[in-house]
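testing teh design pipeline on a random one, pls ignore if ur not involved
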């Protein structure tokens, strides 16, 4: 379950990741405090969203407390990852 939660949160960072080079994606992932990110998810609602191999992305999105999720991201690290020049 935690793997699905982290995958969902990482997918939510993809718009930001589009501006960073491939080598900086690791820095973007490091910018997320996974403990706080996991706490931002209503596991009952997320469990309803995931059935077998399919995911109802609307329900998964709705299972995340957006305020708590935003607090799990260190924006200084995100800015650093985005501003790092690619080699």
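output:
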């Amino acid at each position: 379950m935690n793997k699905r939660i982290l995958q969902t949160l990482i997918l939510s960072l993809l718009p930001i990741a589009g501006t960073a080079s491939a080598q900086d994606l690791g820095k973007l992932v490091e910018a997320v405090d996974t403990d706080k990110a996991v706490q931002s998810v209503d596991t009952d609602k997320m469990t309803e969203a995931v059935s077998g191999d399919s995911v109802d992305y609307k329900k998964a999105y709705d299972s995340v407390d957006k305020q708590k999720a935003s607090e799990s991201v260190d924006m200084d690290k995100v800015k650093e990852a985005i501003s790092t020049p690619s080699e």
